[in-house]
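From the shared-data thread, chain only:
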Amino acid sequence: LTPKEADLALNAAIRAYNQGKGRWAMMSVFERIAHVEQFVEQMKKKRAEVVKILMWEIGKTLGDSEKEFDRTVEYILDTIKTLKDMDRRASQFTIEQGIIAQIRRVPFGVTLCMGPYNYPLNETFTTLIPALIMGNTVIFKPAKYGVLLHRPLLEAFKDCFPKGVMNIIYGSGRVLAGAIMETGKVDAFAFIGTSNSASDIKKMHPRPHRLRAVLGLDAKNPAIILPDADLELTVKECVTGSLSYNGQRCTALKILFVHSSIAEKFLTMFSAEVNKLKIGMPWEKGVQITPLPEPEKTAYLTDLINDAIQKGARVINEGGGTVVKNFFKPAVVYPVNSTMKLYHVEQFGPIVPILSFDDIQTPLHYVVESSYGQQASIFGNNSEEMGYLIDQLVNQVSRINVNTQCQRGPDVFPFNGRKDSAEGTLSVADALRVFSIRTFVAAKGTEENKKLIKEILSERDSKFLTTDYIF
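Structure, as tokens:
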């Protein structure tokens, strides 16, 4: 689509919000929950169709595509449950220093949501659904890949939400999002993708201080493997952590630091496990490595490997880096150093850069100097060393995984990052907060005011000021 269609979607969202006076924004929490519950029931009926398109479009295995759908449904249901809990707490009045007040959350306004291609359903809905259920109107721009899977849900969106509340546009993010942002009429921005793209889009807003943004961006999550690590467990976690869905996850392990005393043994075990991964089409049973959805990605990955080889590294697993059309056999590259692109960039594909260290300050220096700060994994069994690493990393990354791979879930946990890795925090509860703002009604605790408030409550004259309890 073009900026013309983007403008049509924006104006539809603006009209539906109507400066906070629109039908959707004025609904009670109970009413909006009912609409989302209706949507999720219709969504469940489209499971087989959505899963099949998701698998075909981005090359995700059938099993992982099913998991993504089911996890998304679970996320929506958890969001509803959490909002009910929040609303129950908000139904009470607070009395402080002679002032009676009721504090509730209200929507921001028009929200632009842009999802990623690697989790085009789940990660999109972790921002889209909270934005909707809090009363915002939404413009959704799917990623470049992972577009078609939303088609089976269009009718559900149309049937379950008032006109103009949900708007979907397709095309270039920079073109469409840029046209929308330049108007200055977007109140909230949810984006999962690269930090460069996010910065470029945000800069287009003429009044960025008025823009509430929540961004999930780049990551270069390291694993630090100590001499006493359980190698069998560590290899298993690092293979899955670095190569699940071909390494196309922001939470993937993207560089491994292995202590020199165990490096040779680790590399032998790790390479053997990598070469056991089944390569094939996503619907094949037991397949683990599938085609890459981006046509140009294999050339980019090959360039990274060639650069590393020219600067002293080698591919240590047999056949690693072999390209057949858009299949790319996972490559274990060692020893990586700071002169190589692989040391710095987020490869977002099936390449595992590995380097050895003697001094623990080597991986710690890497984390401190990195532009990214999402997560890290540490592997070891010495409590003193592990405790030291935890204390060194907590002010550098947002999640430290002990003897396990980096990951997002469970969704009740905060998902965020430092530096160029994120802006804002997502979890079930945090997402509801980020797409809303606390507003309250206050009055002096005089007998007249108490009587007035009681009358408003008993006559149900206000949807905001209420003590209704949602079961």
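The CA atoms of residues 373 and 397 lie 4 Å apart.
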